[in-house]
Amino acid sequence: MNGYFQLITMPTSTGIRVYEPTDGGETLKYDDVKEYLDERKVSYKPAILNEAITEATGEIVVLNDNSCFPERESYKLTISRDRMEASVFFYAPSENAEYMNPQEFLNDLASRNIVYGIDQEAIFAYFSHREYCKEIVIARGTKVREGSNAKIDLQFNANLHAKPAMREDGSVDYFNLNIINHVHKGEELAILTPEDPGDAGSNIYGEVLRPHPVKPKKLVAGKNTYLSDDGLILYADTDGHVTVRDGKVTVSNVIQFENVDVATGNINYDGSVEVKGTVAAGFSIKAGANIHVKGAVEGASLTAGNDIILERGINGTGKGEIKAGGNIVTKFIENAKVSAKGSITSESILHSNVSAGTEIRVSGKKGFIAGGRVTARDKIIAKDLGSDMGATTIIEVGADPSIKVRIRELQKAIYDSTKRLENIRPTVEAVTKRLRSGSRLSAEQTRQAQQLITQNKILTSQIDKNSKELEELQQKLADSKEAYVVVEGTAYPGITIHIGDQQTTIKLESTYCRYELRDGKIKTGPI
User: Could you give the CA distance from residue 290 to residue 499 in angstroms, rounded to a whole number?
Assistant: First the structure.
Protein backbone atom coordinates (compact mmCIF):
# COMPACT_ATOMS: atom_id res chain seq x y z
CA MET A 1 0.00 0.00 0.00
CA ASN A 2 1.02 3.64 -0.39
CA GLY A 3 2.80 5.57 2.29
CA TYR A 4 0.36 7.55 4.46
CA PHE A 5 0.17 9.73 7.57
CA GLN A 6 -1.91 10.08 10.72
CA LEU A 7 -2.50 13.22 12.75
CA ILE A 8 -1.74 12.73 16.46
CA THR A 9 -3.50 14.92 19.03
CA MET A 10 -1.82 15.23 22.42
CA PRO A 11 -2.76 17.23 25.56
CA THR A 12 -0.33 20.07 24.88
CA SER A 13 0.79 19.51 21.28
CA THR A 14 -0.05 18.13 17.86
CA GLY A 15 2.07 15.61 16.03
CA ILE A 16 2.12 13.37 12.98
CA ARG A 17 3.05 9.80 12.21
CA VAL A 18 4.26 8.98 8.68
CA TYR A 19 4.26 5.38 7.48
CA GLU A 20 6.43 4.18 4.66
CA PRO A 21 4.89 2.38 1.62
CA THR A 22 4.70 -1.40 1.47
CA ASP A 23 4.52 -3.96 -1.35
CA GLY A 24 5.71 -1.48 -3.98
CA GLY A 25 3.29 1.30 -3.02
CA GLU A 26 3.98 4.97 -3.72
CA THR A 27 5.87 7.27 -1.35
CA LEU A 28 3.81 9.90 0.46
CA LYS A 29 4.00 13.32 -1.21
CA TYR A 30 4.76 16.46 0.78
CA ASP A 31 2.04 18.47 -1.01
CA ASP A 32 -0.67 15.97 -0.03
CA VAL A 33 0.17 16.37 3.65
CA LYS A 34 0.60 20.14 3.37
CA GLU A 35 -2.85 20.51 1.76
CA TYR A 36 -4.45 18.44 4.55
CA LEU A 37 -2.77 20.43 7.37
CA ASP A 38 -3.40 23.83 5.78
CA GLU A 39 -7.07 23.06 5.26
CA ARG A 40 -7.40 22.20 8.97
CA LYS A 41 -5.25 25.14 10.06
CA VAL A 42 -2.64 22.94 11.77
CA SER A 43 0.62 24.89 12.04
CA TYR A 44 4.00 23.28 11.29
CA LYS A 45 7.53 24.02 10.28
CA PRO A 46 8.10 22.92 6.68
CA ALA A 47 11.58 21.57 7.40
CA ILE A 48 10.32 19.38 10.25
CA LEU A 49 7.36 18.18 8.17
CA ASN A 50 9.56 17.39 5.18
CA GLU A 51 11.96 15.43 7.39
CA ALA A 52 9.11 13.43 8.89
CA ILE A 53 7.76 12.56 5.42
CA THR A 54 11.19 11.69 4.05
CA GLU A 55 12.18 9.41 6.94
CA ALA A 56 8.69 7.86 7.43
CA THR A 57 9.68 6.03 10.63
CA GLY A 58 6.14 5.70 12.01
CA GLU A 59 7.26 7.57 15.12
CA ILE A 60 5.46 10.67 16.38
CA VAL A 61 6.94 13.93 15.14
CA VAL A 62 5.71 17.04 16.98
CA LEU A 63 4.44 19.73 14.61
CA ASN A 64 3.45 22.45 17.13
CA ASP A 65 2.81 23.09 20.82
CA ASN A 66 -0.95 23.45 20.46
CA SER A 67 -3.45 20.70 21.02
CA CYS A 68 -6.14 20.27 18.29
CA PHE A 69 -9.34 18.32 18.06
CA PRO A 70 -9.17 14.75 16.73
CA GLU A 71 -9.93 14.40 12.98
CA ARG A 72 -12.32 11.73 11.70
CA GLU A 73 -11.48 9.64 8.68
CA SER A 74 -11.98 11.96 5.69
CA TYR A 75 -11.34 12.28 1.97
CA LYS A 76 -10.58 14.73 -0.80
CA LEU A 77 -12.92 14.58 -3.84
CA THR A 78 -11.66 15.40 -7.35
CA ILE A 79 -13.97 15.88 -10.33
CA SER A 80 -12.55 15.78 -13.88
CA ARG A 81 -13.06 18.86 -16.06
CA ASP A 82 -15.47 17.03 -18.34
CA ARG A 83 -17.49 15.86 -15.29
CA MET A 84 -17.05 12.29 -16.45
CA GLU A 85 -14.97 10.96 -13.55
CA ALA A 86 -14.81 11.36 -9.77
CA SER A 87 -11.93 10.14 -7.63
CA VAL A 88 -11.28 10.24 -3.88
CA PHE A 89 -8.14 10.42 -1.76
CA PHE A 90 -8.81 9.07 1.76
CA TYR A 91 -7.00 10.34 4.88
CA ALA A 92 -6.53 8.22 7.98
CA PRO A 93 -8.37 9.36 11.12
CA SER A 94 -6.47 10.78 14.07
CA GLU A 95 -5.45 8.27 16.70
CA ASN A 96 -8.64 6.96 18.42
CA ALA A 97 -10.89 9.13 16.16
CA GLU A 98 -13.98 7.87 14.30
CA TYR A 99 -14.02 5.97 11.03
CA MET A 100 -16.37 6.69 8.15
CA ASN A 101 -18.76 3.91 7.10
CA PRO A 102 -19.74 3.02 3.48
CA GLN A 103 -23.30 4.31 3.74
CA GLU A 104 -22.13 7.64 5.15
CA PHE A 105 -19.76 7.98 2.20
CA LEU A 106 -22.49 7.09 -0.34
CA ASN A 107 -24.86 9.59 1.28
CA ASP A 108 -22.15 12.23 1.03
CA LEU A 109 -21.76 11.55 -2.71
CA ALA A 110 -25.53 11.86 -3.17
CA SER A 111 -25.51 15.21 -1.37
CA ARG A 112 -22.94 16.37 -3.94
CA ASN A 113 -25.30 15.23 -6.75
CA ILE A 114 -22.94 12.47 -7.86
CA VAL A 115 -25.54 9.89 -8.83
CA TYR A 116 -24.37 8.16 -12.01
CA GLY A 117 -21.73 5.51 -12.71
CA ILE A 118 -20.85 5.00 -9.04
CA ASP A 119 -18.38 2.12 -8.64
CA GLN A 120 -19.75 0.46 -5.52
CA GLU A 121 -17.31 -2.41 -5.88
CA ALA A 122 -14.33 -0.01 -5.63
CA ILE A 123 -15.97 1.80 -2.69
CA PHE A 124 -16.68 -1.35 -0.67
CA ALA A 125 -13.23 -2.71 -1.54
CA TYR A 126 -11.75 0.38 0.12
CA PHE A 127 -13.87 0.05 3.25
CA SER A 128 -13.00 -3.66 3.46
CA HIS A 129 -9.28 -2.98 3.19
CA ARG A 130 -8.47 0.65 3.75
CA GLU A 131 -5.62 2.17 1.74
CA TYR A 132 -4.96 5.78 2.59
CA CYS A 133 -3.37 8.50 0.45
CA LYS A 134 -4.24 6.66 -2.77
CA GLU A 135 -6.32 7.99 -5.66
CA ILE A 136 -9.40 5.80 -6.09
CA VAL A 137 -11.88 6.30 -8.98
CA ILE A 138 -15.36 5.90 -7.52
CA ALA A 139 -17.60 7.13 -10.36
CA ARG A 140 -17.38 7.15 -14.15
CA GLY A 141 -19.74 8.61 -16.71
CA THR A 142 -20.65 6.92 -19.97
CA LYS A 143 -19.18 8.49 -23.08
CA VAL A 144 -21.35 9.39 -26.02
CA ARG A 145 -21.13 7.04 -28.98
CA GLU A 146 -21.39 9.22 -32.05
CA GLY A 147 -23.52 7.95 -34.89
CA SER A 148 -23.16 8.37 -38.64
CA ASN A 149 -25.19 9.81 -41.48
CA ALA A 150 -27.13 7.57 -43.79
CA LYS A 151 -25.43 6.95 -47.12
CA ILE A 152 -26.47 5.72 -50.51
CA ASP A 153 -23.96 3.76 -52.59
CA LEU A 154 -24.76 3.85 -56.29
CA GLN A 155 -23.86 0.64 -58.08
CA PHE A 156 -23.07 2.47 -61.31
CA ASN A 157 -20.97 5.43 -62.43
CA ALA A 158 -23.20 8.49 -62.19
CA ASN A 159 -20.54 10.84 -63.58
CA LEU A 160 -19.90 9.60 -67.08
CA HIS A 161 -18.59 12.32 -69.39
CA ALA A 162 -18.57 12.37 -73.15
CA LYS A 163 -14.94 12.47 -74.23
CA PRO A 164 -14.52 12.13 -78.00
CA ALA A 165 -11.24 10.76 -79.27
CA MET A 166 -9.06 12.61 -81.78
CA ARG A 167 -8.42 10.80 -85.08
CA GLU A 168 -5.03 10.83 -86.80
CA ASP A 169 -6.30 13.26 -89.46
CA GLY A 170 -7.27 15.82 -86.80
CA SER A 171 -11.02 15.19 -86.89
CA VAL A 172 -13.02 14.14 -83.85
CA ASP A 173 -14.60 10.70 -83.36
CA TYR A 174 -18.13 11.19 -81.99
CA PHE A 175 -19.19 7.55 -82.28
CA ASN A 176 -17.52 5.82 -79.32
CA LEU A 177 -18.28 8.14 -76.40
CA ASN A 178 -19.30 5.58 -73.75
CA ILE A 179 -21.98 7.77 -72.15
CA ILE A 180 -24.58 5.04 -71.59
CA ASN A 181 -24.97 3.18 -68.28
CA HIS A 182 -26.53 -0.06 -69.50
CA VAL A 183 -28.43 -2.07 -66.88
CA HIS A 184 -30.59 -5.20 -67.00
CA LYS A 185 -33.89 -5.91 -65.30
CA GLY A 186 -33.40 -7.02 -61.68
CA GLU A 187 -29.93 -5.47 -61.41
CA GLU A 188 -29.02 -3.64 -58.17
CA LEU A 189 -28.82 0.12 -58.75
CA ALA A 190 -28.32 1.57 -55.26
CA ILE A 191 -27.86 0.35 -51.68
CA LEU A 192 -28.92 2.37 -48.63
CA THR A 193 -27.03 2.19 -45.36
CA PRO A 194 -29.44 3.73 -42.80
CA GLU A 195 -28.33 6.41 -40.38
CA ASP A 196 -26.88 5.35 -37.04
CA PRO A 197 -28.21 7.72 -34.35
CA GLY A 198 -25.45 6.76 -31.93
CA ASP A 199 -25.91 6.32 -28.18
CA ALA A 200 -26.42 8.97 -25.53
CA GLY A 201 -23.99 9.19 -22.65
CA SER A 202 -24.15 10.60 -19.14
CA ASN A 203 -21.76 12.39 -16.80
CA ILE A 204 -21.45 11.54 -13.12
CA TYR A 205 -24.19 14.08 -12.27
CA GLY A 206 -26.68 12.14 -14.36
CA GLU A 207 -26.82 14.79 -17.08
CA VAL A 208 -27.64 13.20 -20.44
CA LEU A 209 -25.05 13.82 -23.18
CA ARG A 210 -26.55 13.65 -26.64
CA PRO A 211 -24.63 12.51 -29.74
CA HIS A 212 -24.44 14.91 -32.67
CA PRO A 213 -27.51 14.79 -34.91
CA VAL A 214 -27.22 12.63 -38.00
CA LYS A 215 -28.81 13.04 -41.40
CA PRO A 216 -31.27 10.41 -42.60
CA LYS A 217 -31.72 9.42 -46.22
CA LYS A 218 -34.06 7.17 -48.08
CA LEU A 219 -34.03 5.53 -51.44
CA VAL A 220 -36.66 6.89 -53.79
CA ALA A 221 -37.71 4.74 -56.72
CA GLY A 222 -37.63 6.62 -60.00
CA LYS A 223 -39.09 5.51 -63.30
CA ASN A 224 -38.57 1.82 -64.13
CA THR A 225 -37.09 0.96 -60.71
CA TYR A 226 -38.41 -0.74 -57.57
CA LEU A 227 -37.38 -1.09 -53.92
CA SER A 228 -36.76 -4.18 -51.82
CA ASP A 229 -39.29 -4.81 -49.05
CA ASP A 230 -37.01 -3.27 -46.44
CA GLY A 231 -36.35 -0.20 -48.62
CA LEU A 232 -32.58 -0.74 -48.55
CA ILE A 233 -31.92 -1.88 -52.15
CA LEU A 234 -33.10 -0.32 -55.41
CA TYR A 235 -33.45 -2.54 -58.49
CA ALA A 236 -33.95 -1.96 -62.22
CA ASP A 237 -37.43 -2.90 -63.41
CA THR A 238 -36.40 -2.98 -67.07
CA ASP A 239 -33.39 -3.05 -69.36
CA GLY A 240 -32.15 0.41 -70.25
CA HIS A 241 -29.96 3.38 -69.33
CA VAL A 242 -29.65 4.37 -65.66
CA THR A 243 -29.18 8.00 -64.55
CA VAL A 244 -29.73 10.15 -61.45
CA ARG A 245 -32.28 12.93 -61.90
CA ASP A 246 -33.43 15.22 -59.06
CA GLY A 247 -32.15 12.77 -56.49
CA LYS A 248 -33.97 9.80 -58.03
CA VAL A 249 -32.39 6.87 -59.85
CA THR A 250 -34.18 6.39 -63.16
CA VAL A 251 -33.88 3.72 -65.85
CA SER A 252 -34.66 5.08 -69.31
CA ASN A 253 -35.19 3.38 -72.59
CA VAL A 254 -33.83 4.95 -75.76
CA ILE A 255 -36.31 6.01 -78.46
CA GLN A 256 -35.14 6.33 -82.06
CA PHE A 257 -36.29 8.44 -85.02
CA GLU A 258 -35.13 8.61 -88.61
CA ASN A 259 -35.68 12.40 -88.66
CA VAL A 260 -37.46 14.97 -86.52
CA ASP A 261 -39.66 17.02 -88.82
CA VAL A 262 -43.26 17.36 -89.91
CA ALA A 263 -43.68 13.57 -89.81
CA THR A 264 -42.96 13.38 -86.08
CA GLY A 265 -43.74 16.82 -84.69
CA ASN A 266 -41.95 17.96 -81.53
CA ILE A 267 -40.47 15.25 -79.31
CA ASN A 268 -40.86 15.15 -75.51
CA TYR A 269 -39.50 11.96 -73.94
CA ASP A 270 -38.38 10.95 -70.43
CA GLY A 271 -35.56 8.75 -71.63
CA SER A 272 -32.91 9.19 -74.32
CA VAL A 273 -33.59 10.25 -77.91
CA GLU A 274 -31.56 9.15 -80.90
CA VAL A 275 -32.08 10.75 -84.31
CA LYS A 276 -30.44 8.96 -87.24
CA GLY A 277 -31.02 11.82 -89.65
CA THR A 278 -31.69 15.56 -89.24
CA VAL A 279 -33.67 17.80 -86.94
CA ALA A 280 -35.52 20.32 -89.09
CA ALA A 281 -35.72 24.03 -88.32
CA GLY A 282 -38.47 25.07 -85.94
CA PHE A 283 -38.86 21.68 -84.26
CA SER A 284 -37.83 20.75 -80.73
CA ILE A 285 -36.60 17.73 -78.80
CA LYS A 286 -36.90 17.46 -75.03
CA ALA A 287 -35.29 14.40 -73.43
CA GLY A 288 -35.00 13.44 -69.79
CA ALA A 289 -31.66 11.74 -70.46
CA ASN A 290 -29.47 12.07 -73.60
CA ILE A 291 -29.98 13.39 -77.14
CA HIS A 292 -27.89 11.95 -79.96
CA VAL A 293 -28.32 13.42 -83.45
CA LYS A 294 -26.31 11.87 -86.27
CA GLY A 295 -27.43 14.33 -88.93
CA ALA A 296 -27.60 18.13 -89.09
CA VAL A 297 -29.50 20.41 -86.71
CA GLU A 298 -30.82 23.63 -88.26
CA GLY A 299 -32.64 26.29 -86.26
CA ALA A 300 -34.07 23.69 -83.87
CA SER A 301 -34.38 23.58 -80.09
CA LEU A 302 -32.82 20.68 -78.14
CA THR A 303 -33.08 20.26 -74.36
CA ALA A 304 -31.63 17.26 -72.51
CA GLY A 305 -31.42 16.32 -68.85
CA ASN A 306 -27.98 14.82 -69.47
CA ASP A 307 -25.67 14.93 -72.52
CA ILE A 308 -26.21 16.10 -76.11
CA ILE A 309 -24.17 14.66 -78.99
CA LEU A 310 -24.41 16.36 -82.42
CA GLU A 311 -22.28 14.51 -84.96
CA ARG A 312 -22.86 17.14 -87.66
CA GLY A 313 -23.20 20.24 -85.46
CA ILE A 314 -25.80 23.02 -85.40
CA ASN A 315 -26.48 26.03 -87.60
CA GLY A 316 -29.02 27.89 -85.55
CA THR A 317 -29.65 30.67 -88.08
CA GLY A 318 -30.11 32.91 -85.05
CA LYS A 319 -33.02 30.81 -83.73
CA GLY A 320 -31.53 27.51 -82.65
CA GLU A 321 -30.98 26.79 -78.95
CA ILE A 322 -29.28 23.86 -77.26
CA LYS A 323 -29.48 23.15 -73.50
CA ALA A 324 -27.87 20.20 -71.69
CA GLY A 325 -27.96 19.22 -68.04
CA GLY A 326 -24.67 17.42 -68.65
CA ASN A 327 -22.13 17.84 -71.47
CA ILE A 328 -22.37 18.82 -75.14
CA VAL A 329 -20.22 17.37 -77.90
CA THR A 330 -20.79 18.81 -81.38
CA LYS A 331 -19.03 19.14 -84.73
CA PHE A 332 -19.60 22.91 -84.90
CA ILE A 333 -21.74 25.70 -83.42
CA GLU A 334 -22.85 28.52 -85.72
CA ASN A 335 -25.33 31.35 -85.05
CA ALA A 336 -26.83 29.51 -82.08
CA LYS A 337 -27.40 29.78 -78.36
CA VAL A 338 -25.80 26.81 -76.56
CA SER A 339 -25.51 26.06 -72.83
CA ALA A 340 -24.42 23.09 -70.73
CA LYS A 341 -24.12 22.50 -67.00
CA GLY A 342 -21.06 20.40 -67.75
CA SER A 343 -18.51 20.82 -70.54
CA ILE A 344 -18.79 21.73 -74.23
CA THR A 345 -16.55 20.24 -76.93
CA SER A 346 -16.62 21.45 -80.54
CA GLU A 347 -14.40 21.92 -83.59
CA SER A 348 -15.52 25.54 -84.08
CA ILE A 349 -17.78 28.24 -82.59
CA LEU A 350 -18.93 31.06 -84.86
CA HIS A 351 -21.09 34.07 -83.94
CA SER A 352 -22.79 32.23 -81.08
CA ASN A 353 -23.65 32.68 -77.42
CA VAL A 354 -22.12 29.66 -75.68
CA SER A 355 -21.82 28.92 -71.92
CA ALA A 356 -20.57 25.90 -69.96
CA GLY A 357 -20.72 25.06 -66.25
CA THR A 358 -17.17 23.65 -66.32
CA GLU A 359 -15.05 24.04 -69.46
CA ILE A 360 -15.14 24.63 -73.22
CA ARG A 361 -12.71 22.95 -75.60
CA VAL A 362 -12.55 23.94 -79.27
CA SER A 363 -10.12 21.73 -81.17
CA GLY A 364 -9.75 19.71 -84.35
CA LYS A 365 -8.93 20.90 -87.85
CA LYS A 366 -10.44 24.37 -87.36
CA GLY A 367 -10.49 24.90 -83.63
CA PHE A 368 -11.53 28.57 -83.67
CA ILE A 369 -13.88 30.82 -81.69
CA ALA A 370 -14.89 33.88 -83.66
CA GLY A 371 -17.68 36.32 -82.85
CA GLY A 372 -20.23 36.19 -80.05
CA ARG A 373 -19.79 35.50 -76.33
CA VAL A 374 -18.27 32.29 -74.97
CA THR A 375 -18.39 31.68 -71.20
CA ALA A 376 -17.11 28.88 -68.93
CA ARG A 377 -16.59 28.64 -65.18
CA ASP A 378 -13.21 26.88 -65.20
CA LYS A 379 -11.41 27.23 -68.51
CA ILE A 380 -11.65 27.78 -72.25
CA ILE A 381 -9.17 26.10 -74.55
CA ALA A 382 -9.13 26.89 -78.27
CA LYS A 383 -6.78 26.86 -81.23
CA ASP A 384 -7.65 30.40 -82.40
CA LEU A 385 -9.57 33.26 -80.76
CA GLY A 386 -11.17 35.92 -82.97
CA SER A 387 -10.12 36.46 -86.55
CA ASP A 388 -8.16 38.83 -88.73
CA MET A 389 -11.55 40.17 -89.89
CA GLY A 390 -12.02 41.75 -86.45
CA ALA A 391 -15.18 39.88 -85.36
CA THR A 392 -16.32 41.07 -81.91
CA THR A 393 -15.49 38.18 -79.59
CA ILE A 394 -15.92 38.06 -75.80
CA ILE A 395 -14.31 35.27 -73.78
CA GLU A 396 -15.31 34.86 -70.09
CA VAL A 397 -14.10 32.47 -67.39
CA GLY A 398 -14.36 32.47 -63.58
CA ALA A 399 -16.88 33.57 -60.99
CA ASP A 400 -19.53 36.25 -61.42
CA PRO A 401 -18.33 39.62 -60.03
CA SER A 402 -21.58 39.92 -58.05
CA ILE A 403 -20.25 37.15 -55.79
CA LYS A 404 -17.86 39.61 -54.11
CA VAL A 405 -20.72 42.01 -53.33
CA ARG A 406 -22.72 39.20 -51.77
CA ILE A 407 -19.70 38.06 -49.72
CA ARG A 408 -19.36 41.53 -48.19
CA GLU A 409 -23.09 41.58 -47.37
CA LEU A 410 -22.87 38.18 -45.68
CA GLN A 411 -19.76 39.10 -43.68
CA LYS A 412 -21.49 42.20 -42.31
CA ALA A 413 -24.67 40.25 -41.51
CA ILE A 414 -22.68 37.57 -39.65
CA TYR A 415 -20.74 40.23 -37.71
CA ASP A 416 -23.93 42.08 -36.69
CA SER A 417 -25.73 38.88 -35.65
CA THR A 418 -22.70 37.68 -33.67
CA LYS A 419 -22.50 41.01 -31.81
CA ARG A 420 -26.19 40.85 -30.89
CA LEU A 421 -25.77 37.23 -29.81
CA GLU A 422 -22.83 38.14 -27.57
CA ASN A 423 -24.93 40.85 -25.93
CA ILE A 424 -27.88 38.60 -25.03
CA ARG A 425 -26.04 35.33 -24.35
CA PRO A 426 -24.95 36.18 -20.75
CA THR A 427 -28.56 36.98 -19.85
CA VAL A 428 -29.84 33.77 -21.45
CA GLU A 429 -27.21 31.71 -19.61
CA ALA A 430 -28.04 33.42 -16.30
CA VAL A 431 -31.78 32.75 -16.72
CA THR A 432 -31.11 29.12 -17.69
CA LYS A 433 -28.93 28.68 -14.60
CA ARG A 434 -31.63 30.12 -12.34
CA LEU A 435 -34.25 27.82 -13.82
CA ARG A 436 -32.03 24.76 -13.36
CA SER A 437 -31.44 25.68 -9.73
CA GLY A 438 -35.20 25.73 -9.15
CA SER A 439 -35.62 29.51 -8.85
CA ARG A 440 -38.93 30.97 -9.96
CA LEU A 441 -39.33 33.92 -12.29
CA SER A 442 -42.08 36.49 -12.32
CA ALA A 443 -44.49 36.58 -15.27
CA GLU A 444 -42.67 39.57 -16.78
CA GLN A 445 -39.26 37.92 -16.26
CA THR A 446 -40.58 34.75 -17.88
CA ARG A 447 -41.88 36.70 -20.88
CA GLN A 448 -38.56 38.53 -21.30
CA ALA A 449 -36.63 35.28 -20.90
CA GLN A 450 -38.72 33.58 -23.58
CA GLN A 451 -38.13 36.51 -25.94
CA LEU A 452 -34.37 36.36 -25.37
CA ILE A 453 -34.23 32.58 -25.82
CA THR A 454 -36.24 32.85 -29.06
CA GLN A 455 -33.99 35.67 -30.28
CA ASN A 456 -30.94 33.57 -29.40
CA LYS A 457 -32.24 30.68 -31.53
CA ILE A 458 -33.10 32.96 -34.46
CA LEU A 459 -29.70 34.67 -34.43
CA THR A 460 -27.86 31.35 -34.17
CA SER A 461 -29.88 29.99 -37.11
CA GLN A 462 -29.16 33.11 -39.18
CA ILE A 463 -25.43 32.89 -38.46
CA ASP A 464 -25.35 29.20 -39.46
CA LYS A 465 -27.29 29.86 -42.68
CA ASN A 466 -25.20 32.89 -43.68
CA SER A 467 -21.94 31.14 -42.79
CA LYS A 468 -22.83 28.21 -45.03
CA GLU A 469 -23.65 30.50 -47.96
CA LEU A 470 -20.48 32.53 -47.31
CA GLU A 471 -18.34 29.39 -47.37
CA GLU A 472 -19.88 28.31 -50.68
CA LEU A 473 -19.36 31.73 -52.28
CA GLN A 474 -15.79 32.00 -51.01
CA GLN A 475 -15.09 28.62 -52.57
CA LYS A 476 -16.54 29.84 -55.86
CA LEU A 477 -14.40 32.95 -55.67
CA ALA A 478 -11.35 30.81 -54.94
CA ASP A 479 -12.21 28.61 -57.91
CA SER A 480 -12.40 31.67 -60.17
CA LYS A 481 -8.78 32.49 -59.35
CA GLU A 482 -7.82 29.21 -60.97
CA ALA A 483 -9.82 29.90 -64.14
CA TYR A 484 -7.86 30.49 -67.33
CA VAL A 485 -7.92 30.74 -71.12
CA VAL A 486 -5.50 28.80 -73.32
CA VAL A 487 -4.79 29.68 -76.97
CA GLU A 488 -3.05 26.86 -78.82
CA GLY A 489 -2.77 28.91 -82.00
CA THR A 490 -3.44 32.63 -82.42
CA ALA A 491 -5.31 35.22 -80.36
CA TYR A 492 -6.24 38.13 -82.64
CA PRO A 493 -6.44 41.81 -81.60
CA GLY A 494 -9.82 43.07 -80.44
CA ILE A 495 -10.69 40.01 -78.34
CA THR A 496 -12.04 40.87 -74.86
CA ILE A 497 -11.16 38.43 -72.08
CA HIS A 498 -12.90 38.41 -68.67
CA ILE A 499 -11.49 36.41 -65.74
CA GLY A 500 -13.46 36.79 -62.49
CA ASP A 501 -14.06 40.51 -62.05
CA GLN A 502 -11.15 41.57 -64.29
CA GLN A 503 -11.09 42.15 -68.04
CA THR A 504 -8.62 43.00 -70.77
CA THR A 505 -8.74 43.64 -74.51
CA ILE A 506 -6.04 42.10 -76.66
CA LYS A 507 -4.21 44.81 -78.62
CA LEU A 508 -1.46 42.73 -80.19
CA GLU A 509 -1.62 39.38 -81.89
CA SER A 510 -0.42 36.59 -79.58
CA THR A 511 0.34 32.93 -80.18
CA TYR A 512 0.56 29.83 -77.99
CA CYS A 513 -0.37 31.68 -74.80
CA ARG A 514 -2.33 31.37 -71.58
CA TYR A 515 -4.37 34.09 -69.87
CA GLU A 516 -4.88 33.91 -66.10
CA LEU A 517 -5.22 36.04 -62.96
CA ARG A 518 -1.96 36.91 -61.25
CA ASP A 519 -1.73 39.53 -58.52
CA GLY A 520 -5.34 40.54 -59.18
CA LYS A 521 -4.75 41.28 -62.89
CA ILE A 522 -5.11 39.34 -66.12
CA LYS A 523 -1.69 38.38 -67.37
CA THR A 524 -0.49 36.31 -70.29
CA GLY A 525 2.32 33.84 -70.60
CA PRO A 526 3.41 30.87 -72.66
CA ILE A 527 1.43 27.64 -72.51
Answer: 31
